[in-house]
Write a structure and sequence with these properties.
The complex is a heterodimer of chains A (428) and B (321).
Chain A (H helix, E strand, L loop, with lengths): L1 H16 L1 H26 L5 E8 L2 H26 L4 H4 L2 E7 L4 H12 L5 E5 L1 H6 L3 E4 L5 H22 L4 H7 L16 H35 L2 H6 L4 H38 L9 H28 L3 H27 L4 H8 L4 H11 L4 H29 L9 H9 L2
Parallel strand pairs in A: 1-2, 1-3
Antiparallel strand pairs in A: 3-4
Helix pairs in contact in A: 1-11, 3-7, 9-11, 9-12, 9-13, 9-15, 11-12, 12-13, 12-15, 12-16, 13-15, 14-15, 15-16, 16-17
Chain B lengths: L1 E12 L2 E12 L3 E5 L6 H8 L7 E6 L2 E2 L8 E4 L11 H11 L4 H14 L15 H13 L5 E5 L7 H16 L3 E6 L2 H4 L5 E6 L2 E7 H8 L3 E7 L11 E6 L3 E6 L5 H11 L1 E8 L3 H12 L4 H11 L8
Parallel strand pairs in B: 3-8, 3-9, 6-7, 7-8
Antiparallel strand pairs in B: 1-2, 1-4, 4-5, 9-10, 11-13, 11-14, 12-13
Helix pairs in contact in B: 2-3, 2-4
The chains are: A mainly alpha (428), B alpha/beta (321).
């Protein structure tokens, strides 16, 4: 026990002090923030400004209607974004439309307007003649067809205009029509009381990805460490005082502790960041990540890590170089990758057969069961069974891999085939 | 009082027998040589002694009782396959090794500094291992095996790769330890390096003991007597003399081997009758000659087969489970 502790402590301290650890700890949050913030930033670039748009309509009334609808649509979209992200972005999201109405529908006028758009004098032209409205086919000329926000606004504005003019022609007055189309706010709320749909989705996705990355990374770290001990021949020196079992366990515990430290640092940073933005938007942190979720994260991370790192330890003991390890490593890690691929369909139906079986199979369970717990609490017996199966598998694996490890660490040369490995396991 | 006792020890891996019916005892405070060609079973024997593997049959006793892992805190082992954590600092590395042998970190640190001063490498205490030369790494490894003050020191090819100055330095350290009453086991195929150090030895080949006993007994028991004759004139007639079984002419002198039962005085008389003798010296056979002679009889295997055997030898098992 003492030796195991000494080995684990060495592994922990050497790794925590290494440059690789420090770089990784800082870089990953930066990369993740970059990956989420940068695209949004780029996509929203240009919003908050005023766009000059010309509406070509058969009469002024229709043109005025479209102008109103356009600014209303922009206002509504900004409101929805604010509600979904929990951040006050009303001013950034809102686009002001300066709309000129022209009733000249001639072909020549059409051509000059299109030319103006080309020369960037106009942001766009909407051709909403009566014929076009009747045909429900309205053309919008713009350079900026990749701007989602403008497209959304124009689309909802013309749709509203078409409906509006239709209802007007049927004899309804304008105020009744507006009441009919007044937007309804749908506030979806998780029964367990943790945030709305979008935040649940993002926390679940984020936490599962973090678990995936860390289990994969630290499993492979265990393997690398063992290969390094083999190639540097330090193994035999260690074996003069420590049992192979102590060495393997010490290694797994030490590296696992490094993993927990790293995740802890990330979680702490995330909590700080979240509490900052939560304070800014007035909602509390507890609604996003509950303590229960954090505990489950810890449990499933540890179980998953033990499963995969034991397998990795056995691989490390079998092979002589990183290159040799790579093919085996892929086979062993495949279930993790499958679990990630399955995430989408599990989010769609968290109680479907794929989700249930995936969360019971020990090698995909850490990710999938945790994902299900994030989305909506599965039946308690399933959580219990899943953890029980993982613990049982881990127990058997530790036993088998310790035997492979014991023999493998002193073997150099050819990589063993399956019958040889079975023979190793059978050695007294 | 014996430090270690092996009794009819046998270890096989599948059909390959690594060690077969091996028995020897090492007296406390003595230097013992475990000798043999590559792949003879030396490393397998040592691994069984320190519990990395368990023998199939036979018994191993250490410090007067049956083997127990607690005893390993009193054993220092320098394996043939040297290894250190490349990224670790020298001092941290030494402390780690000593702690694994039951020392406290504080004691280990003090001892490590003392030892590094003794071997002239204290200026490297805070360097990473990978920054050191091969020779310096060897010294670190050597210290790591001795830091916890072991009573039984096992050295597998201790002087391999060292220059004569450093080899002598380490040899002197080991002799000092012997004077302090510690038991030392050398495992090597370089006879010349240990001949002057060993009190007793066991020569093994193909896992079986071939010669065993004190250095004197082995030499006497081997029974070969060589004579060097420094002469003036012509004594080439000796080549055909029935007194001689082997004749080597080195130009300035000849070295002959006496035939079984022949008397050296008789040879001196015959030689003196034909030429002028300046020197007539009865030589003891060197350990190396004995080694080559004995092992040569068994014919050393081809390198390829040795490597295959060596791989098999490494298979572990037993006490570690």
């Amino acid at each position: 026990m003492r030796n195991m502790f000494i080995i684990a402590r060495r592994e922990y301290l050497e790794r925590i002090r290494s440059k690789a650890f420090i770089v990784m700890t800082i870089l990953l949050p930066v990369l993740m923030l970059g990956a989420t913030i940068l695209p949004t930033f780029l996509m929203l670039r240009g919003s908050g400004e005023t766009k000059h748009i010309v509406v070509v309509a058969s009469n002024t009334a229709t043109g005025e209607l479209l102008r109103n609808q356009l600014n209303k649509a922009s206002e509504q979209r900004a409101k929805e974004v604010t509600a979904n992200t929990g951040m006050n972005r009303r001013n950034q999201e809102k686009v002001n439309y300066a709309v000129d109405v022209i009733t000249d529908t001639s072909q020549s006028r059409r051509a000059t307007l299109t030319e103006k758009v080309k020369q960037k004098q106009l942001a766009g032209v909407i051709f909403a003649t009566d014929e076009a409205l009747a045909a429900r086919k309205i053309s919008f000329v713009t350079r900026d067809i990749s701007s989602f926000s403008t497209m959304d606004d124009v689309k909802s504005a013309v749709t509203q205009t078409v409906r509006n003019s239709f209802l007007l022609s049927k004899g309804l007055n304008q105020s009744d029509i507006e009441t009919t189309f007044k937007p309804v706010d749908l506030e979806s709320e998780n029964a367990t009381g943790s945030g709305n749909t979008l935040t649940v989705f993002f926390t679940a996705f984020g936490m599962v990805m973090i678990m995936y990355v860390t289990v994969l990374m630290y499993g492979i770290n265990v393997m690398r460490a063992i290969i390094e001990e083999k190639t540097s021949r330090v193994m035999e020196v260690m074996l003069a005082s420590a049992r192979p079992m102590e060495m393997m366990a010490g290694k797994i515990i030490g590296v696992g502790a490094v993993g927990l430290t790293q995740v802890g640092i990330w979680a702490g940073t995330a909590a700080l960041y979240a509490s900052y933005s939560a304070l800014a938007s007035g909602s509390s942190l507890k609604t996003i990540i509950s303590i229960k979720l954090l505990v489950f994260f810890g449990v499933f991370f540890l179980l998953g890590y033990i499963l995969y790192s034991t397998l990795c330890a056995a691989i490390g003991a079998m092979v002589n170089s990183d290159q040799e390890a790579q093919q085996l490593q892929f086979i062993v890690m495949a279930p993790l990758i499958v679990a990630i691929v399955m995430m989408g369909s599990i989010i769609q139906s968290p109680n479907g057969p794929t989700a249930v079986w995936g969360s019971l199979f020990p090698f995909t369970a850490p990710l999938i069961m945790f994902l299900r717990i994030c989305i909506e609490t599965p039946p308690t017996w399933q959580i219990g069974l899943s953890m029980g199966l993982m613990a049982l598998t881990a127990y058997v694996l530790v036993f088998l891999c310790a035997r492979i490890y014991r023999v493998g660490v002193l073997m150099y040369g050819k990589r063993p085939n399956l019958p040889e490995i079975v023979k190793w396991i059978k050695y007294a | 009082m014996y430090t270690i006792e092996l009794e009819k020890v046998r270890k096989s891996y599948g059909t390959f027998v690594a060690v077969d019916d091996l028995s020897f005892k090492i007296e406390k405070g003595s230097v013992f040589g475990l000798l043999g060609p590559n792949g003879a079973g030396k490393t397998s024997t040592i691994r069984m002694m320190i519990g990395i593997t368990a023998p199939d049959s036979g018994t191993i006793g250490m410090f007067g009782k049956a083997f127990e892992r607690k005893s390993l805190n009193r054993v220092g082992y320098l394996p043939e396959e040297r290894g250190l954590y490349r990224k670790m600092k020298v001092l941290d590395q030494l402390i780690l090794m000593a702690e694994l042998h039951g020392m406290s970190a504080a004691d280990a640190k003090q001892k490590a500094i003392e030892w590094c001063q003794r071997l002239d490498i204290s200026f490297k205490l805070n360097s990473k291992v990978e920054e050191l030369s091969k020779g310096l790494q060897q010294k670190i490894q050597f210290i790591a095996a001795l830091l916890h003050d072991p009573d039984f020191i096992i050295m597998d090819e201790p002087f391999f790769g060292l220059d004569p100055v450093n080899a002598t330095m380490l040899k002197n350290v080991l002799l000092d330890l012997k004077k302090e009453g510690r038991t030392i086991l050398f495992s090597t195929h370089r006879m010349d390096q240990v001949e002057k150090l060993c009190d007793s030895l066991c020569l093994i080949n193909h896992g079986r003991p071939v010669l065993h006993g004190t250095l004197k007994d082995v030499k006497a028991g081997y029974g070969k007597r060589n004579v060097q004759i420094d002469y003036a004139g012509d004594i080439s007639f000796l080549e055909r003399s029935p007194l001689i079984s082997k004749f080597n002419n080195y130009g300035n002198y000849v070295e002959v081997q006496l035939a079984p039962g022949a008397d050296s005085q008789e040879l001196l008389r015959v030689a003196a009758a034909h030429s002028r003798i300046n020197r007539f010296e009865l030589m003891e056979p060197s350990l190396e000659e004995i080694f080559i002679d004995v092992v040569g009889e068994h014919k050393v295997d081809s390198e390829e087969k040795l490597q295959a055997e060596k791989n098999n030898l490494q298979v572990a098992g037993g006490r570690n489970a």
